[in-house]
UniProtKB/TrEMBL annotation:
It comes from Actinomadura yumaensis. The keyword rRNA-binding applies. One of its GO terms (cellular component) is ribosome. This is Large ribosomal subunit protein bL21. The gene is rplU. This protein binds to 23S rRNA in the presence of protein L20. Belongs to the bacterial ribosomal protein bL21 family. It comes from the Bacteria. NCBIfam families: L21. Part of the 50S ribosomal subunit. Contacts protein L20.
Length: 104
């Protein structure tokens, strides 16, 4: 059984015990978060209607914080002596999917 969930502006395919990296979430290590399901596939059954998906719940446990790769940004203007160098690392949260359940 797997589900497609919306996490951090993206859609991810998840199954139980998958470790997923999503945009930074508010919460402590060990706490539980829920993601809205977009599509659920259970064997041959595919559930995609919004009314049926309202009963499904995808739960995950926060494992910890992570950072993305370093991105170097360089601004340069010709003939003026202007140079500016910046860097960025996107903060992420690692979560482990603990369950996909049909609620109601």
């Amino acid at each position: 059984m797997y589900a497609i969930v919306r996490a951090g502006g993206r859609q991810e395919k998840v199954a139980v015990d998958d470790v997923l990296t999503v945009d930074k979430l508010a919460g402590e290590v060990g706490s539980t978060v829920t993601f809205p399901a977009v599509l659920v596939v259970d064997g041959d059954d595919v559930v995609s209607s919004a009314a049926a998906l309202a009963g499904y719940q995808v739960t995950a446990e926060i494992l910890g914080a992570a950072k993305g790769p370093k991105i170097n940004i360089m601004h340069y203007r010709n003939k003026t002596g202007y140079k500016r160098r910046m860097g960025h690392r996107q903060p992420y949260t690692e979560v482990k999917i603990t369950g996909i359940k049909a609620g109601k």
